[in-house]
Amino acid sequence: MKKYFEIKYLLIILSIGIILFSGCDKDPFDLFDDFKGKTPVISTDSIYLLSFDSVVVFSHIVSKGGSDIEIAGLCFDNQPNPSEISNQLLFNSSQNNFATIVTGLDEDSTYYFKTFAANSFGSVKGNIISFTVPSSKPPVAPCVLPAGKITDNGFSYTVGTTYSGSVYAYLGSYGIIASLATISGQCDYSFDFNEQPVNGIYTVNAYNFEQHNKRSISMFIRYSFERYRIKDGGKIYIEQIEKGSGKYKISFCDLSYTPTSTTFKTKGSFNTQ
Predict the structure, then answer these.
(1) Which CATH number fits domain 35-133: 2.60.40.10, 3.30.70.2740, 3.20.190.10, 1.20.58.760?
(2) Which of 117, 144, 192, 224 could staple 72 via S-S, CB 3.0–4.6 A?
């Protein structure tokens, strides 16, 4: 008797299902048709260079779909198809047009940028745009400097041996040292970088250097066993003579340091070996 009722109820359920589906024009198994056109549409439009390591990415919401945008953003990577969690930057979802500044990029490197958006009906990915950050042009020092010479407190000296590489960094990850013989003995000019330098103007700034700013350096002069730090704000003009070789042209026009109560001025230009 129990088996009879089970079969009876199963037949009733099947009959109801046939009646329901037979009166429906669309495929009963296409369960996601109701969401078509209700998810948002977002476009990655264009990219422009702002500085040696930053760009601005323009994008916009084409359609918010069937409900308000809940989240929208941008991701980027060196890989052709970045994931949504790679270097993710979120937008103000109440807006439709976005201009996003991306900083900290490496020169002579290609990046891929992709937008994404989501509402209550689902999430979507925008198109991908690639951009290659160009190498900076060699800067020109705003003063005339004799090659291979450093003037310190009014006295001119010839630059002798130079060193460059990570092993010569006193504070950062890459160092350049220029040695010269003075009346008082051996003197070294030391330049510390947070990464291997490229073409550009670098600023002496102890705080920004400690914050790993790419264009800030730490610089000091060593006389025998004494070290004198170059004052913040000085500009160093660096030209990369041969990429990846460690060969550079270093120029500086108006640096200062205070070994005693008197401030000394120094300027110079030399090539690393």
Answers:
(1) 2.60.40.10
(2) 117
